Amino acid sequence: MAEKTYNITCIVCPLSCEMRLMVKDGKIENIKGNRCRRGIDYARQEFYNPQRVLTTTVKLKGDRLPLLPVRTNKPIPRRMLKECVRYLSKIEVKAPVKLGEVIVSNILNSGANVISTKEVGSTGVYRKT
Amino acid sequence: MREIKADVAIIGAGPAGLAAALSAEREGAGEVLVLDRGEELGGILPQCIHNGFGLHRFKEDLTGPEYAQRFIDEVKTKRKIDVKLKTIVLEINQNKEVLATNSEEGIFKIRANSLVLAMGCREKTREMLHIPGSRPAGIFTAGLAQQWVNLEGYLPGREVVILGSGDVGLIMARRLTLEGAEVKAVVEIMPYPGGLTRNVVQCLQDFDIPLLLEHTITFIHGKDRLEAVSVAKVNSKKEPIPGTEKIIPCDTLLLSVGLIPENELSSLAGIEIDPSTGGPVVDERMQTSVEGIFACGNVVQINDLVDYVSQQGEVAGKNAALYALGKLEQPKGVINLKKGRNIRSLVPQIISAQGKVSFFIRVKNPEQKVKLVLGKSIFQQKNPIVKPNQMITWEVPFEDLRLNDDVKELEVSIRKL
């Protein structure tokens, strides 16, 4: 298989090293442009299995606002982001919802739960009695 | 007119105001009153549903609503903190009187012993940029689009161009992509992105959204609805280069071209504004030029991280409480800080140089291998890199420095190593 190069910007620290990865047969042969060891670890992770926390919303009934913000409780593979959002667009929940409440467990077998990031319902809007 | 008394009155219930309220209460203030025109606590945080909040403060990667909830939960348990939502402040003055109104109580006056300004900031609009062309529907600030998409459930359009690469614009590029819109380009006039690198990577590169550096929008096309924008490369003077223009069809243009501290109320009270930050001149206790009026967060300067906003809120709240209780000593001598080489803005601008001072600094130009220097090297800190889009925080232990009483001015500058 042919050799390919990939550019990856390191986000571990503010230096933002522009790294160049030489890749042969799907394996990293060489990394250039990093200024420290952490860059290599980051580049490997980003190349072999980039992971992201997904944040989005689901439909909400019974509250002032029609949406509930949610996120995955741990990072999921980057390639699953769009698929998960599409799945969540069909989900609807009813208020009240607690912060951290599981909305979807093990979404699309990613191993991550989708949890509520907001407290809504009776206590959603603050009022001093 | 009805009058209310408060020890500390706080204008704004975003991250700055909430941190200030909790800190004022902890310091022993009698009655703390927080006013906000919104319908819920947290300011802008409820619409910032993405993660990346609280990494410094809580060592956790939280979303905006989660970060806000930590403060809201605590505020709810405090009997001495009172909150008025859907309440607009009309006027403040040097006597710490606040004129406010809401639909239940009409117009009323608050007599406070001290005030904390925590009004945050506003987005720059198209009118401030003078982009030629027609005035069709479909042009929004990035923050308004964020409110629509994340709180109200509306998609502003299907084919989007974003002008400016500030963090809100980058975040919205990802958000709109995930919600099914096509983001055709992010256009940035500067040679470097305005937002954090993390956001450039995770919001643009992850979704193959082009970032056009040193480009700007030269014309807006469309009669009723936006139809396209003309984009051109710019030269070093930021003028469009003839012949580089191309047309990008789109139905939506988002503007993420900067934020302006919201200081109309501050000006009414005659508070001195620093033109380089757009916010009040403050000392290390976050006290403004008017004794007993304090300020914190984005009303003072635009911060990159909410963690910094909370930190300033705590300082302002604590000192506002001390002032209200008559326990805040006004300093004997003050030192004015001067912006030296490659310093764009600097907070605080005035210090009494007692104890530890936390500086928040922004540079004019990116530079590598530099040091931050106070005065003639009274104190310095090495920095491998400085960038305009990354605020520098700098703790200076003045108690160890033993400055002479006759020092009236100190310069802060960036120097090459």
Would you give the CATH topology of the largest domain in chain A? CPE0013-like fold
Provide the CATH top-level class of the largest domain in chain B. Answer: Alpha Beta
First-residue to last-residue Cα separation of chain B? 62 Å
Mean model confidence by pLDDT of chain A: 91
pLDDT < 50 runs, ≥5 residues of chain A: 123-129
Q: Radius of gyration of chain A, Cα only, in angstroms?
A: 20 Å
Describe the structure.
The complex is a heterodimer of chains A (129) and B (417). Chain A has 129 residues and is α+β, with helices and mostly antiparallel strands. Chain A has helices spanning 37-48, 81-88; strands at 3-9, 18-24, 27-32, 51-52, 55-61, 67-72, 76-77, 92-94, 102-104, 114-116. Chain A has 2 domains: 3-48; 55-116, CPE0013-like (CPE0013-like fold). In chain A, 16% of the residues lie in helices and 36% in strands. In chain A, the strands form 3 sheets. Chain A has a 5-stranded mixed β-sheet, with no helix packed on it. The longest helix of chain A is centred in the N-terminal third of the chain and has 12 residues, at 37-48. The termini of chain A are far apart. In chain A, 28% of the residues are buried. In chain B, 19% of the residues lie in helices and 35% in strands. By secondary structure, chain B is of the alpha/beta class. Chain B folds into 3 domains: 2-122 and 260-330, FAD/NAD(P)-binding domain, CATH 3.50.50.60; 125-257, 3-Layer(bba) Sandwich (FAD/NAD(P)-binding domain); 336-416, Immunoglobulin-like, CATH 2.60.40. In chain B, helix 3 packs across helix 4 (167-178). Chain B has 7 helices and 29 strands. The N and C termini of chain B lie far apart (62 Å). The longest helix of chain B has 19 residues, at 306-324. The model of chain B has no long low-confidence stretch (mean pLDDT 95). Chain B has helices at residues 15-26, 64-76, 142-152, 167-178, 197-204, 264-268, 306-324, and strands at residues 2-11, 32-35, 51-53, 62-63, 81-84, 88-92, 97-102, 106-117, 121-123, 139-141, 159-163, 182-188, 211-213, 215-221, 228-233, 246-249, 252-255, 259-261, 273-274, 279-280, 293-295, 335-339, 343-347, 350-351, 356-363, 367-374, 379-386, 392-397, 409-416. In chain B, the strands form 8 sheets. In chain B, strands 1, 2, 5, 6, 7, 8 and 21 form a 7-stranded mixed β-sheet that branches. The interface between A and B is medium-sized, with 31 and 35 residues.
